[in-house]
Amino acid sequence: MASVASGSMCGKAGGISRSTFDGSLEFQDAEQSRSVPQLNNFAAPSLKATALRTTSWKVYGTCHGVRNRRFQRGVVKMSIADSPAKRKLQEQGLEHVSGLAISETAAWKQLHQHVGEIKKTHLRELMKDEQRCQSMIKEVDGIVVDYSRQRVTTGTMEKLLSLANEAKLSEKIDAMWSGKHINSTEDRAVLHCALRAPREAEIFCDGKNVVPEVWSTLDKIKEFSERVRSGEWVGATGKALTNVVAIGIGGSFLGPLFVHNALETEPSAEKLAEGRSLRFFSNVDPVDSGIALKGLDPETTLVVVVSKTFTTAETMLNARTCRAWITSNLGVDAVSKHMIAVSTNLELVKEFGIDPENAFPFWDWVGGRYSVTSAVGVLPLALQYGFDKVEEFLKGTWSMDQHFRNAPLESNLPVLLGLLSVWNVTFLGYPARAILPYSQALQKLAPHIQQVSMESNGKGVAIDGTPLPYEAGEIEFGEPGTNGQHSFYQLIHQGRVVPCDFIGAVRSQHSVFMPGEKVSNHDELMSNFFAQADALADGKTPEDLKAEGVAAPLIPHKVFTGNRPSLSILLPTLDAFTIGQLLSLYEHRIAVQGFIWNVNSFDQWGVELGKSLASRVRTQLNASRTRDAPLQGFNYSTTYLLTHYLKGKTPVHD
Questions:
Q1: What does the pLDDT read at residue 15?
Q2: DSSP letters for 507-566
């Protein structure tokens, strides 16, 4: 029988005077007698025990079964019924510290106690300690990360590293790299790092080195993209295909879009893309199809349909929309020349009209939000910029991958940043993070990381299914500087505390220096990058304002409390390689958070319910618009809204 947790917990709730966890849950009744069914709603302070129901839990006495029996001051043992996810973890030796147990470790408790000490400090004073600041500035392969403006001392970092050890972080990282099925709810390995491994590397999944298969696909992408870019592969009318429309949603859209936006203004990539265009089509809103196809000639357009199963509802509707656009202009036979796929379902690819030879695979061990370095992103990006440029991007991700895999925890950038996020969210109570790139080329970084982070760690249960007794997951948002300064920085400076990531580059993609100006345009931008972090940390006191002669009534409005945490990431420049490094840094940082919180960062069951309900609504809309069928089975509010919606629609009758 699988156990709830290891460790111990004491508390009193619902008549329970003692609770201990030592492989299974035990409790001792404080009353003369209690029937087992009455214990269904048992709860203790650190255990949101909504799962303690007799349908999910098996109940045992120390000497005999007690289900449906009364007992006198006895000790009852309860252990969670076996689940496929739990068994999979046990089979692979991955039954690590549970969500409950990690919050009961000495390291966790020490951090909670330490919060009181930190609340007595101010960053204004912490920043005067140069030795402390020096210890919190790290440089790896050209990237400088400065987290000295976080609300931490060297002692805090030591405690966070102790927590990492308690959570068996190193073992979990090793498990990911060794191909163990750490995505236990879907019984899958997590090996997106293998997508950027050099050809000679060995990374195993289920006893098989997957790197040769990855490179077989990369070689196919290189060969195909070169044929298209050179004009050897032409459309149905013999014209070169210079425009690419990539259809996908979620990670199949946000990741590639982020990289494309970051590359399209980099001089060498810009030159490689001359005469070509790359657009993305994700939303089923018909307005998006109009935007994606506006001004394009179907004779010179190649459409890439990205769907692993070739069944994703939104993607396939958009694919059919593009197919109709192509066939109405060029005929049915043109589909095989103007549409290709990234998918593993070759049967449906063929049924759609796409030649299976023009389908590029990716694997179950690649999650959608981690798929930009698979054919999902590499194919459209190679068509736009050439494979060699995209390979530079892959090398950048691999550089940070190797750092994450091999560097000691105390100097490991993704580990340190992940631990700081756990500290901010779970211990200091700051639920959000602002991603603030001082580079317009990184305008799509925040939306991509928003998905990677919130879909990965937006969980309410631990990996073994037990409810989390602490807050996990970050609310991510952001905007390039200096635009964000004129949008939401007011709140960041004088409203809620929102930890910030400032991201900048030493060299601009396009440097502009005009005679008569004090600084270049990039220097002006970066002046704000440096200043904002200090403004958040130091603030401005009433005494400062009085010394400046500010009128007394205005002083409360102009006070900046400061003590608002941030970190700074400084890249040498923004090119394909550093874009890859930055992506990998964030991917692994998010994984570290999940490993500490003990959630499954690689599934996304939370997106399923809305989709299934939408299917029901879709069926109703079809019935109502084609057969005037009455609305049935919806609550009052939804019925009212659907009625109002249908009143404004034109009936569609066969």
A1: 32
A2: S-SS----TT-SS-HHHHHHHHHHHHHHHHHH-B-HHHHHHTT--GGGHHHH-B-----E
